[in-house]
Amino acid sequence: MSSKPPAAPSVTSAVDFSALDPASLPPVLVEHARLVWADRVRTEYQSIQVVGRFLIEALAAGEPLDVTQRVSETIEEEIRHAALCQQMCAALGGKVPTPKEVAAPLDDLHEVPVEERVLATAISLFLVAETFSVGYLEDLWARASHPVTKAVLEAIVGDEAEHEAFGPELVERKLREAPAAKRAGWKTFTQRLVRAHLDRAEKSLAQVPAEARVLARWPEEERAVLGLLGKERLALLCQRTYAERLEPTLVRLGLG
């Protein structure tokens, strides 16, 4: 795989979206891309919500200022990602979701101790979700053949790779501070999250014979033009990311 791209420097995008001409691409592909990038607006916006709440919880829990700073930077990065996805939607000629359309109600967690909320989010978002996300995005970025798609994915994956590094460090410290009696519970919590990803992947591959369960059999050159993944390649990337990146980290942290 190609080397990782650098993190994007600012919220303002330098991507020349005028270089993307939907009329020059297969209509079915463009229509699919409009739906996918619109959904990415939703997921990125909801990530802003979750990380925003996490910042408040980290402050309430008295987390070190370097954690506060890193989480604040993450919020800025997620805002940039949402804006890039909006711009990609517009460049594709699709309907651009507004924040009001994609905002989700946050769960009421007031009865959960703030320390537990911090660790739960550190595991679910910064450890598990970000690791899988980086695995998918790096694959898309490495294979993207359109310069606009390449630039957008480069801006996003550069930030996400930093999130991935932040998660294990934070989780490791929080687990050291957690009572020994509760660590088994956190292991169960983590494995339940991971199992949901792996079960979805296995379901997508249920009809795929063993000899076809390799990424080379699902090159998806056309989809890669606009940063899309078919369900089979996505499932195989999920399994690869777990085996190569997430599982070793979980074992090291005592969560595997």
| Share of β-strand residues | under 5%
Please report the total strand number as a whole number: 0
The low-confidence parts are 6-12
Shape annotation: globular
Within the CATH hierarchy, at the fold level, what is the topology? Answer: Ferritin
Separation, N- and C-terminal Cα atoms: 26 Å
Rg for CA atoms: 19 Å
> If helices are DSSP runs of H or I spanning 4 or more residues, what is the number of helices?
8
Q: What is the structural class?
A: mainly alpha
CATH class: Mainly Alpha
Q: Which architecture per CATH?
A: Up-down Bundle
Approximately how much helix is present in the residues? 55-70%
What does the main sheet amount to?
Answer: none
**For the residues shown, what is the average pLDDT?**
91
What is the H-and-E element order? HHHHHHHH
Number of domains: 1
Structure overview:
- The chain has eight helices and no strands.
- The longest helix has 34 residues, at 27-60.
- It has a single domain (25-253), classed as Ferritin (Up-down Bundle), CATH 1.20.1260.
- With 256 residues, it is an all-alpha fold.
- Residues 6-12 have low confidence and may be disordered.
How is this structure best summarized?
The chain has about 260 residues and is mainly alpha-helical. The protein has helices spanning about 25-60, 65-90, 100, 115-145, 145-175, 180-205, 220-225, 230-255. The protein has a single domain, classed as Ferritin (Up-down Bundle), CATH 1.20.1260.
